Each structure stands twice: as structure tokens, then as C-alpha cells.
């Protein structure tokens, strides 16, 4: 449990937020949202002490352990992967090291024996005998192959390092878990695994994320940071967004009767609470939504930008027809007999575990490289907008 009392932070003359009073309870997952620069990451840093608050206090339940997803991907470069994960439980790791140091002594004394006995008791109480297998299980769940478990961190690629640091944060089932953008650089399979893990996590979780689907899957509450205020709402992101938009529409409809507005909100809550899966988080969320006082639903002052692509002319109904598309590179098959049809207004997501296959596919579609075998047919004036993988370089839309 995390208790925030009268918390405030100010940088120079700028007040980021003030008078924050909240309790984050075990068994709940809190999604922290807000515009860029609103203070989401700063709020997490206040909780674990990296940023000093101007006023107020942050406290944890007696004897509770806090774990934070590390952001420095090079911090553990000289350490083995398994070791890095187990270091996430600092107390257990300290006991293991002290125990090993005592047993390695050549002049083992009676006092050493007494201390070793104390450490063994602590070690067993923290389930230390299963520490290595638990760490390995987390790594495997996150997609780190077993042959990498004893490699040094510096030998891993950037995406695998992120997974190891995530395993480190989860290791030992901490009482309080703080995750800042945990899905960044994760593939879809790993995100799905993490959703399942957190949706059934028994302790307190606070997450900063821009991934709406992820927040919908795991959150029991939303913490909205907006215009210097921090407010907590029951429900996941979609419930918060749709209820706040409904409240905004009602606020703008001045002539609507209060009873009609109340009925509309109650019907919305009933519809939303009926749509719940069976995970621990969603069951808890459903109960809180059902108990929600409609006066707690407030309109959001957030503005939502839109990305609009305007073609030079109205396209035809058939945009692209692909039949039997195949491609190999240096004798390695990337894909074979890929066929699909894209119609006007279709929105298609392409997924692949192999980024080379994805890049090559789009290079073929754009006409930059030839396919081994394919029939391609479609609108000759396709609007193309390209974002290259692993870069921040996006080209401007061009008609071809």
C-alpha cells in the first residue's frame, strides 16, 4: 500500500501539482495518464524518491518492498542476466551475498556459524531456494531464451535488455510495483504475457503507459494528471475516457434535465460493468464501477489531436491486390505465398516476429525492391507514409 499525503512539487515558479492526497491499495492496478509534460514520470519518481517533493509525504505499508522498472539499460552490463534479475530483490540478494561470503571463509568461527544460521532462516523465509528458478521462469515468460540466462547483459541486444530489466522489477513479487512505459520495445507476445501477469497480480501496481489497450487490460483505476491536479477514478482507460466524454457532452447540453443526465450516466455504468473478464483485476474493477457515485464522473479538460491523411483524389474501391507474394534474402525464406486484398476504408495491421520480413514486405509494396514471385495490382496513386523501424525518421506522405 502506498499513501500520499498533501504531496506537492514545484520547479522554480512552475507548480507541477500540489495538495495530492491518495491511497493506492493492494490488489489494484493504477494507470497514470496525462498529456506529455504533465508530470506522469515525475509522480512515479516522487514515490520512489528520485525526485524530492516540495511538501507532503509518501509512505508504504510496514515492512513492504518497493520495486521500480529501471530505465538505464547499461547499468548492469558487466553482470550475468540471471544475477541482474535476482538483484531486483535487494534484501534477498544481500542475504545471498553475505551467506556466500561467510561460507567461503577459511577461518570459520562460532560467531560466523550463528550469523550463517540467522541468514539461512531469512533466506528460507524469502523463498531463496527457488530464487534462481523463479528468475529463470520470469525470463522465459518474457521471451529470453535459456541459453542467454548466463550471458553478460552487455551481450544482449537492446530489446532483450528491456525484458531482463522488466523481469528484475517483477522478481520476488514486490508489495509495490512502479512501471514507467513497460511496453516500450516489447513485441506483441511479450506484451500479452505481461498483461496476463499484471491482471492477476495480488499487490499494488502503478503504471505509466500510452498504450490504451494495455491500460484497459490491466487497470482497476485511472489516475489522471491534468492542469496541475491529480485525480483518481475507478475503471480502466476506456471507462474513464467514455465516461468523461459523456459528462462533457452533458455539461454542454445545458437544457437537459438533471434526472435525464443521471439516468444516462447510470445506464452507461451498467453497460460497462457487464463487460468484464474473469481476471482478478477486472473482477475488482467491475465491483468498483458498480459502486461508483455518478457525481464522481467529471468531464476531462484534455484535448485530443487527430492525424488526418487527405488524398489528392478520392480512391477507387480496390486499393491493393496481392497474390502469391514470396521473398528470400541470402537463401533464407522471409515469407511465402502471401495473398490479401485491401479495399477502400480498410485499416490493416501487419504483424511479424521478424522485423526483416516486415521491412522487406513494405519495400516490395513500395516498389523499391523486387519480389521473388508475386502478382501485385492496385490503385496507381497510393498515399504512402513511411516510418522506418528502429528510427524516429518518418517520411512525408507522397502520392505515387
Structure notes:
- The longest helix is centred in the N-terminal third of the chain and has 16 residues.
- The strands form 4 sheets. The chain has a 6-stranded mixed beta sheet with strand order 5-6-7-3-8-9, sandwiched between helices.
- Among the domains are: 154 residues, 3-Layer(aba) Sandwich (Rossmann fold); 82 residues, P-loop containing nucleotide triphosphate hydrolases (Rossmann fold, 3-Layer(aba) Sandwich).
- Helix 9 runs antiparallel to helix 10 and helix 10 packs antiparallel against helix 11.
- Strand 10 and strand 11 form a beta hairpin.
- By secondary structure, the chain is of the alpha/beta class.
- It is built from 12 helices and 14 strands.
- Helices cover 36% and strands 23% of the residues.
Descriptive key words:
400 residues, alpha/beta, Rossmann fold, 6-stranded mixed sheet, 3-stranded antiparallel sheet
List the helices and strands and how they pair.
Layout: E1 2-11, E2 14-24, E3 29-34, H1 40-48, E4 55-60, E5 66-68, H2 81-86, H3 90-103, H4 110-125, H5 131-141, H6 158-170, E6 176-180, H7 188-199, E7 204-208, H8 212-218, E8 221-226, E9 229-234, H9 237-252, H10 258-273, H11 280-290, E10 318-329, E11 332-343, H12 355-365, E12 373-378, E13 383-384, E14 398-399
Parallel strand pairs: 3-7, 3-8, 5-6, 6-7
Antiparallel strand pairs: 1-2, 1-4, 8-9, 10-11, 10-12, 13-14
Amino acid at each position: 500500500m502506498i499513501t500520499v499525503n498533501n504531496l506537492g512539487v514545484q520547479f522554480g515558479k512552475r507548480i507541477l501539482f500540489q495538495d495530492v492526497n491518495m491511497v493506492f491499495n493492494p490488489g489494484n492496478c493504477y494507470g497514470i495518464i496525462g498529456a506529455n509534460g504533465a508530470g506522469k514520470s515525475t509522480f512515479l519518481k516522487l514515490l520512489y524518491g528520485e525526485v524530492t517533493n516540495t511538501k507532503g509525504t509518501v509512505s508504504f505499508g510496514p515492512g513492504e518492498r518497493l520495486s521500480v522498472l529501471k530505465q538505464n539499460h547499461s547499468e548492469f552490463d558487466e553482470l550475468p542476466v540471471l544475477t541482474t534479475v535476482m538483484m531486483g530483490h535487494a534484501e534477498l540478494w544481500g542475504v545471498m551475498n553475505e551467506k556466500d561470503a561467510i561460507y567461503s571463509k577459511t577461518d570459520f568461527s562460532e560467531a560466523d556459524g550463528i550469523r550463517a544460521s540467522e541468514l539461512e532462516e531469512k533466506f528460507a523465509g524469502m523463498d531463496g531456494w527457488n530464487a534462481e528458478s523463479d528468475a529463470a521462469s520470469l525470463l522465459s515468460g518474457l521471451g529470453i531464451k535459456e541459453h542467454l540466462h548466463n550471458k553478460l547483459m552487455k551481450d544482449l541486444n537492446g530489446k532483450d535488455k528491456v525484458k531482463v530489466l522488466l523481469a528484475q522489477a517483477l522478481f520476488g513479487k514486490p508489495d509495490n510495483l512502479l512501471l514507467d512505459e513497460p511496453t516500450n520495445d516489447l513485441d506483441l507476445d511479450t506484451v500479452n504475457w505481461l498483461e496476463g501477469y499484471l491482471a492477476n497480480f495480488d499487490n499494488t501496481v502503478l503504471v505509466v503507459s500510452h498504450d490504451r489497450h494495455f491500460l484497459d487490460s490491466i487497470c482497476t483505476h485511472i489516475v489522471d494528471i491534468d492542469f496541475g491536479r491529480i485525480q483518481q477514478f475507478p475503471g480502466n482507460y476506456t471507462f474513464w475516457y467514455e465516461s468523461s466524454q459523456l459528462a462533457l457532452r452533458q455539461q454542454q447540453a445545458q437544457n437537459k434535465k438533471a434526472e435525464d443526465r443521471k439516468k444516462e450516466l447510470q445506464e452507461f455504468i451498467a453497460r460497462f460493468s457487464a463487460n468484464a473478464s474473469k481476471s482478478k483485476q477486472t473482477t475488482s474493477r467491475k465491483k468498483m464501477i458498480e459502486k461508483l457515485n455518478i457525481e464522481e464522473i467529471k468531464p476531462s479538460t484534455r484535448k485530443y489531436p487527430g492525424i488526418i491523411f487527405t488524398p489528392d483524389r478520392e480512391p477507387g474501391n480496390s486499393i491493393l491486390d496481392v497474390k502469391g507474394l514470396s521473398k528470400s534474402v541470402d537463401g533464407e525464406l522471409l515469407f511465402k505465398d502471401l495473398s490479401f486484398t485491401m479495399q477502400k476504408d480498410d485499416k490493416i495491421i501487419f504483424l511479424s516476429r521478424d522485423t526483416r520480413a516486415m521491412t522487406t514486405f513494405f519495400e516490395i509494396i513500395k516498389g523499391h525492391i523486387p519480389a521473388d514471385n508475386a502478382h501485385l495490382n492496385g490503385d496507381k496513386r497510393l498515399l504512402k507514409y513511411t516510418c522506418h523501424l528502429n528510427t524516429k525518421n518518418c517520411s512525408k506522405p507522397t502520392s505515387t
